[in-house]
Structures are given as C-alpha cells and as structure tokens.
C-alpha cells in the first residue's frame, strides 16, 4: 500500500453547504484515500466557549446555543444527504453527541464549579460534530469513511490543559495501527489525550499541529493543508500593497513566520513533519480543480534574490522591562525570574538584555500576571518594572538574513527614515529572522514601508529603467 496523505481542513473553510461540497471535490482529486484532520465549523468553537462562560450565571443560554448549533448542522445534513436512512442516522449521532455535552454542562451547573479540564473537554466537541456530519455526507456520496478519535488513536500529550504538547514518541507507537484500511479516515483535530485519559487542547489553531503529528506518526507522503487563501504571502494584504505569493519556504522560515504572527499555520505545525522530512503543501480550496500547491514547505534551501521572503506582525506581544543598575550582569537574576514564571506556566517569547535592563517579551494577555509575580519576588536590584502593551512586533523572515550584506540596514532605514521609533530590535537570534518592536500606532506605516523597501522598490525601479 502506498503512503497515506494527511489532509487538514480548517474552520475558515468549513462554513456551509457549499464548503462541504468543495471538500467532496477535493477528495476526487486524490488517487489514494487520505486521512482528513478536521477543525470545527466556523463559529462553533466560539458558541461552545460562550456556553461554558455563561453557564453559572445563565443556564437558559444552553438551550439557545444548542438549538443554534443543531439548526446549523441539521440544515447542512438535510441539504446534502439525500438518503433518508443515512440522513436520520447522522442526525441521531449529532443529537447524541450534543446530549452528552449538555449533560456534562448541566452537571457543572449543579455543582457550581468549573474544573480546569472542562474548557478543553467542552471545546473539543466542535471538531467531533464536524466529523460526524462529514461522515454522513460521505456515506451518502458512496465514499467509505471511518471516524478515528484522537483519544482512541493514542495521540498522547503532556497533559497541559489549553496548550498541550504532543508526545510524538508515544503517539507513533499507537497511532499507525488505527489507520490500516484503504478508506477515508476522518479525525477531529485540535486536541489529544493525556496519560490520565483527559482531553487536552493543543492551543489556538491546534488542528494544524495535530494534523502534522498524525502525518509524522503515519510517515505520510505529505501534509496537505486546505485554506481559503493563496498560501504564504510577502505581506498581509490587509496591511501592504501588492503582496507576492511565496511559492517555497523552508521549515525554519515557515516556523518563524508562524511564530511571529502569520496566521497561516499554528506555530508548532512544522515540528513533527520536520523530523520525518514530510513536505507541507498549502492549497486554496477555491482553486481545488487546479490542484496546485500555493506554497510548499520542506527542507530544501531556497534563497530569495532579496534574501527576505515575508514581513509579518505580532500584535499580541508586549514588553516587560526590568530596570536596575547591573541587572543584566548580576549572576542568577534572570534565572530566578524565569524560574518563577515557569512555575506559573508563563512563557517568555524572547529576552533582550543590557547592563541596566532585562526586556522580556510576553503575550499581552498574561503580561500583567508576570508583572505581579516578579514584583512579589522583591528583588532589590530591580528599581523599576515597566509594562508596555501599546506595541507591535514586526518580523522579516528569509534564509540567510545574518549573512547577506545590508539587509538589516535596509529594514531599519525603511522604518527610521519615516519617523518611526524602534523600541527594541533583534538581529541574529535566528539566521532566518530579524524583528523589531514599534509603537502600536506606527504598525501599519512600518509594515508598509518595510514591504515597499524589500519587495516593491526594486521592481518599480526595474520597470522605470526599462521604460526609460
């Protein structure tokens, strides 16, 4: 039997009846029967989250939310499934899953306490409902399929609720035995299972990560990610003019772009497939008939003529500035700080130090907690702690950034020449990225100027030279 291909279908694609029909068309373009890792339909996860958040104060909201979900799913089932028996079986399965969820939430309401694991368990239902619906539609179209749930397949995690890591060694021992038939497999994405048999989410956008883990465990031919955009671009079309499609990225470039805010991939998607040299292929579902990958990600080195390949922005990173004479020099200070944050599951995105300051880059939604924890340490060397949230982190990605002459200078000049203040910058943290932090109000201007300098200026000069 030939190697399997793992497909990931994201929530931005799963919207309505038309999107389900497009998935059927995608299947027809593959010679072998793939493993399909599926997200929740667009908006369903938010409804599930709302049901949990409002549960203790408004039990009646449960009925409204469940009716909305059932109505939405039922309308797709009725529209796309012609066979009466298959339609009814699918509706029954859907109702059964929703009843299980309702009972769980009602139990929480009666005990008046939301356990830590509840968030992960409740939000996992979005993906479970997706595979039930798709299996019914596939059956109606004579496409043999089977659902494999991550908890049954053995997609083992470290047990961290909300943002778990997959234990690839343990998973590889269990996953393959569940995918031996020559049929289409449907797998709910976004979550795995701890060694205590508790469901744990893989973080925001985690279906990418789980799909990559299944691709690794199955030694897949490729990981094909279907979205409604044309792959990676030289910049976000919302912020820059004339962005160019990037046909190829290395694993490192893709990982850096994802880490620094490009919403195309979950930041950890690259990790599993890189281990087995499995290419990631990004497709646009609106061009499914052409079956042309918009961006291919693998370990082949490709150097862009201008070195830089893309500029992206992360608006969720803030600065925690720790000031004091010799704070960056005194042994043990940084170690004590990072240990305290680690004990409270606060991740430090980056550290930039000087003699009189330690700058910690931390997600804005947890930076206040980090401030409180460090303040309580009462470190005498610290004279001031400043929280800066009104900033944006802009990253320029491309292999060979540290070796190519003048690239960093062009980036910094593009910003400074237009009166934009750079609060912090880092060159050389990785061979594939240069990043800088600017005031939030200057974000769009900085992105525009950097993109113009790196990707548009030379092209315009060449056209003008040709015309003259």
Write a structural description.
- By secondary structure, this protein is an alpha/beta fold.
- The chain has two domains: 5-229 and 264-301, Acetylglutamate kinase-like (Carbamate kinase, 3-Layer(aba) Sandwich), CATH 3.40.1160.10; 312-467, VC0802-like.
- The chain is 40% helix and 20% strand.
- The protein has helices at 17-28, 44-53, 61-80, 84-111, 118-123, 125-140, 150-153, 168-174, 206-217, 251-259, 270-275, 333-343, 364-376, 407-416, 443-467; strands spanning 5-9, 35-38, 145-147, 184-188, 191-193, 199-201, 222-227, 248-250, 280-284, 295-298, 310-314, 317-323, 350-353, 357-363, 384-388, 391-397, 422-430, 433-439.
- The strands form four sheets. The protein has an eight-stranded mixed sheet with strand order 3-4-2-1-7-9-10-8, with helices on both faces. Strands 11-16-18-17 form a four-stranded antiparallel sheet, sandwiched between helices. It has a four-stranded antiparallel sheet with strand order 13-14-12-15.
- Helix 14 packs across helix 15 (443-467).
- The radius of gyration is 24 Å and the shape is globular.
- The protein starts with a strand and ends with a helix.
């Amino acid at each position: 039997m030939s190697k399997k291909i793992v497909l990931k279908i994201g929530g931005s694609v799963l919207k309505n009846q038309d999107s389900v029909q497009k998935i059927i068309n995608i299947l027809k373009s593959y010679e072998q029967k793939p493993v399909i890792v599926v997200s929740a339909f667009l908006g369903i996860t938010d409804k599930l989250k709302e049901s949990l958040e409002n549960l203790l104060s408004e039990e009646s909201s449960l009925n409204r939310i469940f009716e909305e979900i059932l109505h939405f799913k039922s309308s797709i089932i009725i529209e796309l499934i012609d066979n009466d028996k298959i339609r009814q079986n699918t509706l029954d399965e859907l109702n059964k899953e929703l009843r299980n969820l309702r009972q769980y939430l009602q139990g929480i309401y009666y005990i008046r306490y939301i356990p830590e694991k509840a968030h992960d368990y409740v939000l996992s239902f979005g993906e479970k409902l997706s595979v039930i619906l798709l299996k019914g539609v596939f059956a109606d179209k004579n496409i043999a399929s089977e659902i494999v749930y991550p908890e049954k397949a053995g997609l083992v995690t470290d047990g961290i609720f909300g943002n778990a890591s997959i234990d690839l060694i343990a998973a590889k021992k269990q996953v393959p035995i569940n995918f031996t038939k020559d049929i289409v497999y449907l797998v709910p994405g976004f979550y795995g299972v701890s060694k205590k048999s508790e469901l744990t989410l893989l973080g925001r956008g985690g279906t990418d990560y789980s799909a990559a883990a299944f691709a690794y465990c199955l030694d897949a031919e490729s990981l094909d990610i279907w979205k409604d955009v044309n792959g990676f671009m030289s910049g976000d079309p919302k912020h820059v003019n004339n962005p160019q499609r990037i046909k190829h990225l290395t694993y490192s470039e893709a990982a850096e772009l994802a880490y620094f805010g490009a919403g195309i991939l979950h930041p950890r998607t690259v990790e599993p497939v890189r281990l087995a040299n499995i290419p990631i292929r990004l497709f646009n579902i609106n061009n499914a008939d052409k079956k042309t990958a918009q961006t291919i990600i693998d370990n082949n080195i490709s150097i862009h003529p201008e070195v830089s390949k893309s500029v992206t922005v992360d608006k969720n990173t803030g600065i925690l500035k720790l000031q004091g004479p010799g704070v960056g020099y005194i042994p043990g200070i940084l170690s004590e700080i990072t240990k305290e944050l680690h004990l409270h599951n606060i991740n430090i995105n980056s550290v930039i130090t000087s003699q009189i300051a330690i700058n910690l880059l931390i997600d804005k939604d947890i930076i206040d907690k980090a401030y409180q924890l460090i303040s309580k340490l009462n470190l005498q060397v610290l004279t001031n702690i400043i929280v800066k949230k009104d900033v944006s982190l802009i990253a320029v990605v491309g292999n060979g950034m540290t070796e190519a002459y003048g690239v960093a200078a062009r980036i910094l000049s593009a910003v400074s020449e237009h009166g934009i203040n750079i609060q912090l910058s880092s060159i050389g943290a990785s061979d594939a990225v240069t990043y800088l932090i600017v005031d939030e109000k200057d974000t769009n201007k900085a992105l525009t100027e950097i993109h113009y300098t790196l990707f548009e200026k030379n092209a315009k000069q060449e056209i003008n030279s040709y015309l003259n």
